[in-house]
Design a protein that fits this description.
The complex is a heterodimer of chains A (about 190) and B (about 400). Chain A is of the alpha/beta class and about 190 residues long. Chain A is built from 6 helices and 6 strands; from the N terminus they run αβαββαβαβαβα. A 6-stranded mixed sheet of chain A has the order 2-3-1-4-5-6, with helices on both faces. Chain A is globular, with a radius of gyration of 20 Å. Chain B has about 400 residues and is mainly α. Chain B has 4 domains: about 55 residues, no CATH class; about 130 residues, Zinc/RING finger domain, C3HC4 (zinc finger) (Herpes Virus-1); about 100 residues; about 80 residues, Irregular (DNA Excision Repair, Uvrb, Chain A). Chain B has 13 helices and 4 strands. In chain B, a hairpin with a 6-residue loop joins β1 and β2. The N and C termini of chain B lie far apart (about 130 Å). Classes of the chains: A alpha/beta (about 190), B mainly alpha (about 400). Chains A and B meet through α1, α2, β2 and β3 of A and α8, α10, α11, α12 and α13 of B. The structure holds guanosine-5'-triphosphate, magnesium ion and zinc ion (ZN) (3 copies). Guanosine-5'-triphosphate binds next to α2 of chain A. The site of one zinc ion has 8 residues of chain B, from loops. Chain B: One of its GO terms (molecular function) is zinc ion binding. Chain B: InterPro entries: Rab4/Rab5_effector, Rbsn_Rab-bd, Rbsn_Rab-bd_sf, Znf_C2H2_type, Znf_FYVE, Znf_FYVE-rel, Znf_FYVE_PHD, Znf_RING/FYVE/PHD. Chain B: This is Rabenosyn-5.
């Protein structure tokens, strides 16, 4: 019995002491857990898909449960690994959300600029995060489908004012044209 | 007649009319070969002395005019023209390579109009007449006629490499030419294609040592990540955790061994590269790369701990469940993570129709989804992802248990 102990102990020490040939100059590595929240069909999955794979699907299927994606980004000598949980907007899955935002360092709350109701739902999410999530969580608000600005129902200034009052990062995005997509993910990280 | 018309100019010797190209040369030449003609020499010297007196001061430049823009415009136009012409040829070549079967000749003639044979009595390139011995041939790319020695057989393999960049990004099938086949084209068309080809080759050329070395580094980088993961996984396993499976550790070990073999071979290849005698340091460099790689493999990869046996692992788990050893095992310090820079990763979407059995409880549904993701991550050797997903699965289970308790309490 004792032998396992020492064996494991040795191993642990070894791992720490392991020389890293030519690895000494590598920069900082951050792991970054991120969650997306918002009403169904506002484009959460589309935003993540754009960020992770550079793709956009006109017929994106509605998410069930929560989907998981990772993306690695190099910023100067810092490597940032995003672990992203893309939650389902359908009401039925609301109860799952806390499990994903509780461990997250950042949340992107998404609404659809052509749909006033989704902006209302976004505000409810922000409130829930402010009450239940980690107090250090960074929240960003994304007004998605900016490419459909001719059908706009939520004014930019209205959302900006709301974001300022609540200390949120805010950008209008378009998963379709890729506008501001990388920017909002990276803005959160900084 | 012809001689009378030619006007010679330059620093000519008055005796033998040779052009000596500079006053000094002329004077030296004259002194050496025509020393008996002293007075002529003197007069030559006088002429040049006078010349130097008058012109040794730099002359005021007269009015000037830049032709650079004109030159650029002409050049651009020619280049554009040549580029479009070459592109046209490459597009045609691409289509030619897709022709096969019995009606190939007919397809070829539909692609470009072939010049009628009776219109051409002499080869336009060498002007020699066509006859039974010098027959007419059509260029498959431009349709013009020339003789055998003014045409070129373009091998399919070379044609493929010229065409390849055109295919880039399109999802069409690669051209289907049979090997050993070739296309007759005229020298003019071949020149255009060959120019493009040489530019491309030049652009891609890299000394072989650089290619091998960058290959080596890429593999080393990959090994580094795998080793990090291996250590993390080993620590997790021997401390009795169930995040990873023993198979995971074994599969990583195999990956590391394969890669080690690969970098070993690569470094050997580098060491054996022929050395340019003009670059004495190259040999030392090549040997150093080889040495460094050997040391790396010996000190770093061969020292990895062997995976525990199934029995050992069982023991560890048993002890852990009794809780005897738990406090004694130092919690392994998380090894520093280094992340491969890749494009993002995600498991294939789990949809209602496929893996997930319709569950009434979204929690159960999500547990199935995450289990499926874990399988996918494991298959892709994405072990960091496996760990995060496992963590989430535990969380879901815990939440489900709490929910069950609550409901039980209500009843
Ligand atoms: N025009 C436009 N359409 C978008 C944009 N983003 C998403 N869409 C479309 O909106 C629809 C819904 O997008 P999803 O990404 O599935 O939305 P979601 O928020 O993930 O929805 P749930 O998974 O049900 O929560 C899809 O048909 C997308 O093609 C955008 O920026 N512009
Ligand atoms: Mg979705
Ligand atoms: Zn002479
Ligand atoms: Zn000819
Ligand atoms: Zn031709």
């Amino acid at each position: 019995m004792a032998s396992e102990t020492t064996e494991a102990g040795k191993m642990a020490n070894r791992a720490v002491a392991a020389q890293r040939p030519n690895g000494s100059t590598q920069g900082k590595i951050c792991q970054f857990k991120l969650v997306l929240l918002g009403e169904s069909a506002v484009g959460k999955s589309s935003l993540v898909l754009r960020f992770v794979k550079g793709q956009f699907h006109e017929y994106q299927e509605s998410t069930i449960g929560a989907a998981f994606l990772t993306q690695t980004i190099c910023l100067d000598d810092t490597t940032v690994k995003f672990e992203i949980w893309d939650t389902a907007g359908q009401e039925r899955y609301h109860s799952l959300a806390p499990m994903y935002y509780r461990g997250a360092q950042a949340a992107i709350v998404v609404y659809d600029i052509t749909n006033q109701d989704t902006f209302g739902r976004a505000k409810t999410w922000v409130k829930e995060l402010q009450r239940q999530a980690s107090p250090t969580i960074v929240i960003a608000l994304a007004g998605n489908k900016q490419d459909l600005a001719n059908k706009r129902m939520v004014e930019f200034e209205e959302a900006q004012t709301y974001a300022d009052e609540n200390g949120l990062l805010f950008m209008e995005t378009s998963a379709k044209t890729a506008m501001n997509v990388n920017d909002i993910f990276l803005a959160i990280e900084v | 007649m012809a001689e009378a018309n030619t006007i010679q100019e330059g620093f000519l010797c008055p005796m033998c009319h040779k052009d000596l190209r500079s006053p000094n040369n002329l004077i030296v030449h004259f002194q050496d070969l025509h020393s008996e003609e002293q007075d002529i020499l003197k007069s030559i010297k006088d002429i040049y002395d006078k010349y130097y007196l008058e012109y040794s001061d730099p002359q005021e430049p007269g009015p000037t005019r830049s032709h650079t823009d004109y030159f650029r415009a002409v050049r651009r136009e020619r280049l554009d023209h040549r580029t479009t012409e070459t592109n046209k040829l490459i597009i045609r070549l691409d289509r030619l390579l897709r022709f096969y079967g019995s009606d190939r000749k007919q397809q070829e003639q539909e692609l470009v109009t072939w010049v009628e044979g009776y219109l051409v009595s002499r080869c336009p390139a060498c002007t020699l007449p066509f006859n039974i011995a010098r027959r007419q041939h059509h260029c498959r790319l431009c349709g013009s006629i020339m003789c055998n020695s003014c045409s070129y057989f373009l091998p399919y393999e070379i044609a493929q490499t010229i065409v390849a960049p055109v295919n880039n990004g399109s999802d069409r099938e690669p051209a289907t030419g049979k090997e050993g086949d070739n296309l007759r084209i005229c020298n003019h068309c071949w020149n255009m294609l060959d120019c493009r080809r040489r530019v491309q080759i030049e652009q891609m050329k890299q000394p072989i040592i650089c290619q091998l070395y960058s290959h080596l580094q890429k593999n080393k980088f990959h090994i580094q990540n795998t080793v990090d993961m291996y250590e993390k996984m080993y620590n997790s396993l021997v401390s009795g955790e169930t995040t990873y499976l023993l198979q995971d550790l074994q599969s990583l070990r195999t990956t590391i061994a394969d890669k080690a073999q690969m970098i070993d071979t690569l470094s050997k290849k580098i060491a054996l590269l022929p050395v340019d005698p003009g670059m004495p340091k190259a040999a030392a460099l090549q040997n150093n790369i080889r040495k460094a790689t050997s040391v790396y493999i010996k000190d770093y990869l061969l020292t990895l701990s062997a995976p525990p046996t199934v029995q050992e692992l069982e023991k560890i788990k048993r002890n852990r469940s009794i809780g005897v050893v738990e406090d004694d095992i130092p919690t392994p310090k998380p090894s520093i993570k280094k992340v491969t820079v890749t494009t993002g990763w995600s498991p294939a979407n789990v949809t209602n129709e496929t893996t997930v059995v319709e569950e009434n409880d979204p929690l159960l549904e999500q547990m199935n989804i995450v289990r499926n993701y874990i399988d996918q991550a494991r298959k892709a050797q994405r072990f960091e992802e496996v760990a995060s997903l496992q963590e989430n699965l535990q969380l879901l289970k815990k939440m489900y248990r709490e929910q069950q308790k609550e409901e039980y309490g209500k009843k």
